[in-house]
Write a structure and sequence with these properties.
The chain has 440 residues and is an alpha/beta fold. The chain is 38% helix and 25% strand. The protein folds into two domains: 5-289, Acetylglutamate kinase-like (Carbamate kinase, 3-Layer(aba) Sandwich), CATH 3.40.1160; 294-439, Aminopeptidase, CATH 3.40.630. Helix 7 (190-200) packs parallel to helix 9. The structure holds coenzyme A. Coenzyme A binds next to strand 20, helix 13, strand 21 and helix 14.
């Protein structure tokens, strides 16, 4: 078959997702979505995506809600909806409606996950859905003199039982109900169940499908990534958050603080949102990452001492081109630094040539005692997204000793003639650096 642009794009795209596929196999993802997804008839598309994730060997735990269905049931039974401090009060009659609504939603989800129609993305799908008394609950109790009765919170997650099911390739579906050792049933929130499950299972990802597309800053721009402390700042800042974010962001913080490495807040209205968020560098929502002592940030003039200290030994060894203090002062805005516990342990600089849509990555360095922790790669990835933001189409490096490191990260050897004109004229023929290029 002749390679057309479309088929070449397809091949390039398919290859680009391979690293994610390898990285995600056997990982545990907890994905939570409200009853609205089922009520709106959107669950079919989502089922296709779950099917795909499961076929890639990802261990899936799905957590569903049933809020609109419960409200419908309550209205039909002429029962009011009572909230106390934002928490639903569940008396015996309400609990009856909750059980019925949750049961119905669950059956509907299980039916859709069982589809296997030919000529659909579910053809040959073999999803087995597991359920059970995996969640032990306790009553929330009395708040300000009001007994919330059958409203509960998660007390324990039966990790061994869930892992048993996941081990056999089954998808575990958790409902917002929990059982107590006294034999009672409690009405739980989906966010509590999802967060508790992700923490207990030591999940690699927790995903919340929401009505909005993520967390926005004061100017309304979508924030792609937040560390836990940044997320806490957003929560304590004065600007108004959407109901979704106010509900799920604290859960993301709780999960991250307890060791869940990534929590994603994404829109349920976007077809393929889960796939786009998980299988692309940029994602489409907001990702909350574990709190870290590391910060990757733009360098300032105060960092020059630290950068010099880091680069000097490498320059002495002839690995990097020498830069004196004056040059660093002039070029400091081109640098990023990686700080670990307030100490500079890594850096890199980016020199864009806008006319040729190419940028040079230079002075990439990680302190010797901090190597092999993925810091070099984190800096490279950061620089790639900065370069993309500046509309660069390729990134090149000149290196004498680190060729293989770059090759293993998607760079290919190229010729001096392919360098941007300005860089070509400055090329140092004595150093004999090799040129490597990566399309970005
Ligand atoms: C290149 C450099 C930035 C990588 O930093 P790092 O934080 O150790 O990088 P990562 O942790 O992301 O990657 C480590 C992996 O790269 C491998 N690696 C390190 N140097 C390598 C080299 N020269 N060639 C091939 N692989 C190399 C390590 O063995 C390790 O492999 P593993 O993951 O299989 O264990 C660091 O080695 C460095 O500062 N080198 C000196 C400066 C330099 O050469 N800069 C590039 C020119 S601009």
């Amino acid at each position: 078959m002749p390679i057309t642009t479309t088929s070449a794009d397809f091949v390039a795209w398919f290859r680009s997702v391979a690293p994610y596929i390898n990285a995600f196999r056997t990982r545990t993802f907890v994905i939570a979505f409200g009853g609205e997804v089922v009520a709106d008839g959107k669950f079919v598309e989502l089922t296709h995506d779950f099917n795909l994730l499961a076929s890639l060997g990802i261990k899936l735990v799905l957590v569903h809600g049933a809020r609109p269905q419960i409200e419908q049931h309550l209205a039909k039974s002429n029962l009011g909806d009572t909230y106390h401090h934002g928490i639903r009060l569940t008396d015996a009659e309400t609990m009856q409606c909750v059980k019925e609504a949750v049961g119905r939603v669950r059956v509907e989800i299980e039916a859709l996950l069982s589809m296997g129609l030919p000529n659909s993305p579910m053809a040959n799908a073999d999803i087995r859905v597991a359920g059970g008394n995996f969640i032990t609950a306790q009553p929330i109790g009395v708040i300000n003199g009001i007994d919330l009765q059958h409203t509960g919170s998660v007390r324990k997650v039966d990790v061994a039982a869930i892992n048993d099911r996941l081990k056999f390739g089954e998808v575990v579906l958790l409902s917002p109900l929990g059982y107590s050792p006294t034999g009672e049933v409690f009405n739980l929130t989906l966010e509590d169940v999802a967060t508790a499950a992700a923490i207990a299972l030591d999940a690699d990802k927790l995903v919340f499908l929401m009505d909005t597309d993520g967390v926005h800053d004061k100017k309304g721009n979508l924030i792609k990534e937040l560390t836990v402390s940044q997320a806490q700042e957003v929560l304590s800042a004065k600007h108004k958050l959407t109901d979704d974010v106010a509900l799920y962001l604290p859960c993301a913080v709780r999960a991250s603080e307890a060791g869940v490495s990534r929590t994603h807040l994404i829109s349920r209205h976007n077809d393929g949102a889960v796939l786009q968020e998980l299988f692309s560098d940029d994602g489409i929502g907001t990702m909350v990452v574990e709190s870290t002592l590391n910060t990757l940030r733009d360098a300032t003039i105060e960092d020059i001492g630290g950068i010099l200290e880091l680069l000097r030994p490498l320059e002495d060894e002839g690995i990097l081109v020498r830069r004196n203090r004056e040059l660093l002062e002039q070029e400091i805005e081109r640098f990023v630094v990686l700080e670990h516990d307030h100490r500079i342990v890594g850096c890199a600089a980016l020199y864009p040539s806008p006319d040729e849509a190419a940028a040079e990555l230079a002075a990439l360095a990680v302190e010797k005692q901090n190597r092999d922790h993925g810091y070099g790669e984190a800096i490279l990835n950061h620089m790639i997204s900065v370069a993309k933001g500046q509309r660069m189409k390729k990134l090149f490096v000149l290196t004498t000793r680190t060729a293989h490191w770059f090759i293993e990260r998607g760079f290919v050897e190229s010729d001096i003639s392919t360098l941007p004109a300005h860089k070509k004229s400055l090329y140092n023929y004595q150093r004999k650096s090799k040129v490597f290029v990566r399309k970005i």
